[in-house]
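Fold tokens
===========
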Amino acid sequence: MKILLACRVGTDDVRDADVAAALEEVRRVPELHEWWVAQQKFHASAQESFRSAPVPENLRDQLLARTKIIRVDWWRRPVSLGAAAAIVLLFVLAGVFFQRPRQDTFAVFRSRMVGNVLRQYSMSITTNDMAQVRQHLASRQAPADYELPSKLNELPVIGAGVLSWGDRRVSMVCLDSKRRGMLFLFIVDAASITAVPKQLEFAPVRSLQTVSWTNEGKTYVLAGSMEAKELAQFL
């Protein structure tokens, strides 16, 4: 929300990768979408109020004629009713914003992980040996004691990398699905996320399909360019 708070629709702001990711989350989360609509209405109202504020006649001559600058406290300055309403609304929205919970929910985690690999990803190790992958991840303080479903465990591993989630490390294991290209498996300690899935949860995230689950203190997100039923066959 900090990113969206500074975003202005109709400007170059929406071209920023982080803004695009945040707007994608707005389309997915109803509460965030409701806040975003209110935020845009506020900006439009504030702009309209400032544009419609009357300008005193001969303002330029009056300013030039002054020989002494008198500073007036901002709360004592005359403003239009529209501008005053806009200021009040700003404080209300700010209060709502700062009362919202931290953005550490599972939905945000899943969106960011998928966003990372869609923008740019790199494997810090390339190997077909899962034992070497686990050893590499453990050396970087990323989850390495994960348990994979039997069918997923049969897929050839390609390599792995380490991503960040706050101050926690996330393991990214890349697998070869053979017919449908690479699969990305993200593994993180479940304790670092709120509202983790208690059972299999399928959801499209941007151009990828995902399936997620939690087991033995670890939360998993498997993502690939395929339909949900195709992804389910690996579980």
Q: What stands out?
A: The radius of gyration is 25 Å. Strands lie at 125-126, 157-165, 168-176, 182-189, 201-205, 208-215, 218-224.
